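Protein in question kept underneath.
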Amino acid sequence: MTTVLVTGCSTGIGFATALAFGRAGHAVAAAMRNPSRAPELANIAARESLPITVFQMDVDSDASVSAAVSRIEHELGPIHVLVNNAGIERMGAVEELPLADFRAVMETNFFGVIRCIQAVLPGMRELRKGCIINVASVAGHVAVSPMASYTASKYALEALSECLAQEVKPHGIRVAIVEPGIIDTAMSRHISVALEPSSYPQRRRVAALFSTALKQPAPPSLVAEKILEIATTITWQLRHPVGPDAAFFLGWRKGMCDEDWVAVGALDDAAWYDRIQADFGMDARPEA
């Protein structure tokens, strides 16, 4: 039986991924920061008799990651698959978002991934096999204001994954990057609501874009199914866009030079909404 460690399992993609692996018969270590606040996964696992065990892990803490991985290896055996899914977002223009928020996002989305990788790699190298799947985002290629903190962390994760793949392939370890588009998660729902006043218009425009996209929601299970497929098939493909709009977002950015991309993001509201409608066929204008 394959042992799979999935981080950030309390909601969304991590929750769906843990269930997908468990229902496929794999032993799942479902890690989350505060298990007592998110009992639903454990309840479903018990009701369906799934091989899912919830472990407390805070990916922001060296000690927590080290202790959790030791417990998992002791209770479930060697870890064969690591799914780095835990992530947070903070929305705000570069001028306005507190530096502490930039640090918090990078701590979880980037350094948290490194902590987990460093904890499991010795065991995978000893086995001479393993699979590390990093959940990035189309935001790892598409920089949209006011998502600078989140986008920067995902750009960094993309680069880290490329380097890691080169290092561990000789040891029989596969690395994959999953790049979801707009998926119906609590994070996306939060982005879709522009509550904070700002001197910059991009916050409310991106909120309107997310809100419009979520009217036809793509469920987290789409991403979970792709992650399960990557882990259970012998593929060395590095990048895997997921979701109905992922390829379009990536192609949208690739189709513009840097200066044109900046110019689109700097348009006034009316022109920006017109451009979104022309390029996406989507009227993202907020309802009056």
About this structure: The domain at 3-185+219-251 is CATH 3.40.50.720 (Rossmann fold). DSSP finds eleven helices and seven strands in the chain.
